[in-house]
Amino acid sequence: MSGAVPTPDRTLLEAIERLAHEAGQVILSVYRRDIEVTLKTDRTPLTEADLRANEVILAGLARLTPQTPVLSEESVERFDGVGPGGTYWLVDPLDGTREFIRRNDEFTVNIALIHQGAPVLGVVVAPALGVSYLAARGLGAFKVEGEGGAWQPIRCRGFDPARGYRVLGSRSHQDPRLTSWLAALGKHRLTPLGSSLKACLIAEGQADVYPRFGPTSLWDTAAAQAVVEEAGGVIVDQAGAALGYHTPAERLNPSFFVWSKRAREHFCA
Asked: Do 212 and 257 meet the contact criterion of CB atoms below 8 Å apart?
């Protein structure tokens, strides 16, 4: 695992799962006491948990793959560009900081391996919920209950027109374009949820679509995208192209949609 280009195999996926759980335990240690919040220059919240989890992940990735650069939300200044073969780690040490502050448990640790612009391995751990989602290219996607639990294969499910679309929406970010899009969608049920859990629920067949209008960053989507794609779903922009990570200097995503395959086929028919 210490070679120039990490191989997205089961051994690496297991190591990243353990590392994400380690970061999750640090986050929970802060979650159980009073939370002090500061604001970053972009006015987004920052806590001790973000910073401590970031250091755990950076140290762990340096041990596992010392030659592979890391782009993390909480240490962007340390990133010097992609590594050999167009490979780098993309990390959000605490996705859903607002949910963390509100203590609703809907926050995650996100770690993705990017190779030639695509997420080829992803781990999403929700430490307060005791659930994880894992995937690597060619291995499939998995859900894990608890730390050290069995890997349960997951797939996006078929779409039932009679039931309508099961839509997930952001709990903390609202956009008027969502209202217009939902009005044109047809029969649906909207459920709000925080962090990258929304994409992961589509991957395990619990929802059909997550439309996201407005800015997000690369580290918000990459790990969950690996899971969704291995589970048979897609994350695409408004033109239908998969979200890409070729140019990490451009850190904002366009508006996008997370779809199960059958639901998208029905929508586009």
From this structure: yes
Task: Delimit the domains of the chain by residue range.
Answer: 10-153, 165-268
* Ramachandran sector of residue 107 (left: φ over 0; alpha: ψ -120 to 50; beta: rest): beta
Q: Where is 119: in which H helix or E strand?
A: strand 118-126
Integer Cα distance of 52 and 173 in angstroms? 25
Backbone angles phi, psi at 94, to 5 degrees: -150, 95
Looking at domain 10-153, its CATH superfamily turns out to be Fructose-1,6-Bisphosphatase, subunit A, domain 1 (3.30.540.10)
For the chain, 269 residues long, give each residue's pLDDT as a single digit of tens.
545 689 999 999 999 999 999 999 999 999 999 999 999 988 889 999 999 999 999 999 999 999 999 999 999 999 999 998 899 999 999 999 999 999 999 999 999 999 999 999 999 999 999 999 999 999 999 999 998 999 999 999 999 999 999 999 988 777 889 999 999 999 999 999 999 999 999 999 999 999 999 889 999 999 999 999 999 999 999 999 999 999 999 999 999 999 999 999 999 98
Tell me the CA end-to-end span of the chain in Å, nearest whole number.
44
Whole-angstrom distance, CA of residue 259 vs CA of residue 64:
33
Same fold, 10-153 and 165-268: no
Q: Please give the CATH topology (third level) of the domain spanning 165-268.
A: D-Maltodextrin-Binding Protein; domain 2 (3.40.190)
Cβ atoms of residues 211 and 115 within 8 Å: no
